[in-house]
Amino acid sequence: MKRPERASGRTCTNKTLLYLFIGLCIAMLCSAFLYWHYVNEVLSLTVVLADTVKNIYTDGTSLLLDTLRLNKTESNHGPTTRRPGSGNVTTLGKVPTTKKRTEAPPRPPTDRPDNCEVCFKHDFNYVLDNDQICARNDKSPEIDVVILIFTVHQNRLQRDTIRNTWLTYAKNNSLDSNIRYAFLLGATSDSNMNKKVKEEFDVFKDILKEDFKDAYSNLTYKTMMAYKWASTKCKDAKFVMKTDDDMYVNIPNILKTLNTNKDKLQTHVGGACHQVAQPIRDHRSKWYASKRSFPGSHYPGFCSGTGYVTSMNVATKVFEVSKHVPFFHLEDVYVAICIKKLGYKLLSIPNFNAGRFAADPCIYQGNSMMTSHQVPPDMMKKMWFGKCKKNA
Ligand SMILES: *[C@@H]1O[C@H](CO)[C@@H](O)[C@H](O)[C@H]1NC(C)=O
Ligand SMILES: *[C@@H]1O[C@H](CO)[C@@H](O)[C@H](O)[C@H]1NC(C)=O
Ligand SMILES: *[C@@H]1O[C@H](CO)[C@@H](O)[C@H](O)[C@H]1NC(C)=O
Ligand SMILES: *[C@@H]1O[C@H](CO)[C@@H](O)[C@H](O)[C@H]1NC(C)=O
């Protein structure tokens, strides 16, 4: 009698334990689900935040994003991976796309006007200008190249570093220099920055500034400003180079290649060019292009805005034709659209690197490197002042 009772008592305890266990399991599942849900929320919030941050153009964020990409760029794109004429291999820095995107069915040829009557106005006014940058006297050599460097107000350190390193070949734009240069700015409402840049201008007289708002999506205005200024205030220069303030440019090598390609450059823009390129439709990308801004499925290629060269002839023609070419916010693609309209072409020149060469002074001081991207000031100094051990 007692045994069964005890037995049933044990069964009862066992059952209770089982229910408890099942209950616990359910509770765990529920909390796991809740946790998963929460994590998801946080993740998507992070993505949204990241997008927002990315969309806000401040130098800080773009610098941060650039920095985060540095290691990848360097390890993937050392000098050995660059081959002459690899223009259509879209793997470097400023590149529309290599990824195949799973997009809706192929679209028919679209109606983005390639042509229009004075539809792109860029008649902004100079806020800062020095029309003596390209001045010459009887003893002056010919101006081989004018280098126009895109910058933003807060990048004083970058400008100073460039002035003291690879730009010293320009000899402060003196009358006996065959190389002239200017830094290009748009407008900002930050009065402190305006004041500081004005002071910098008073010292170096090497800054050009127009009254369009400086923003990443306004870079095409800056490019038009560059071509306008070059073709009106520096028309004696034989060649024009556009580059950025995070670039290392080996000027002697640039001069050599300008000379080698002097005839071609009368009808070409040269640099790290991609003959084949597609718009990026992912709005999280820095190079996003909406279907509205560019309905076509392919760009007419482009030469990476990190550094490209052309003749004064082409620069002048691009500026003239641009008034009839609708605005597009990616300046290097916009230039290629103008080039195509003029019946000109893009010329891939080896060693214009839209990525970054390995941090080796022998490369930066060697006789083949043209440009290297995302070179921060401290690295710039090391590459300029550092000794190349192989040659020592
Ligand atoms: C690059 O990677 C190294 C380690 O491999 C790390 O210490 C460094 O901070 C990274 N630099 C950047 C700019 O991400
Ligand atoms: C890239 O260009 C080479 C010739 O320079 C050509 O053979 C190749 O098909 C091109 N690749 C693409 C993807 O267009
Ligand atoms: C350029 O100007 C700086 C100071 O502004 C001066 O130190 C340097 O010697 C000048 N360089 C030349 C080549 O005149
Ligand atoms: C581009 O510049 C124009 C003219 O200053 C300005 O109206 C516009 O807001 C700017 N775009 C951006 C994104 O700031």
TrEMBL record:
The chain crosses the membrane at residues 16-38. It holds the Pfam family Galactosyl_T. It is found in: Golgi apparatus membrane. Its EC number is 2.4.1.-. It is an enzyme of class 2 (transferase). It is a single-pass type II membrane protein. Signal peptide: none annotated. GO terms for molecular function: hexosyltransferase activity. This is Hexosyltransferase.
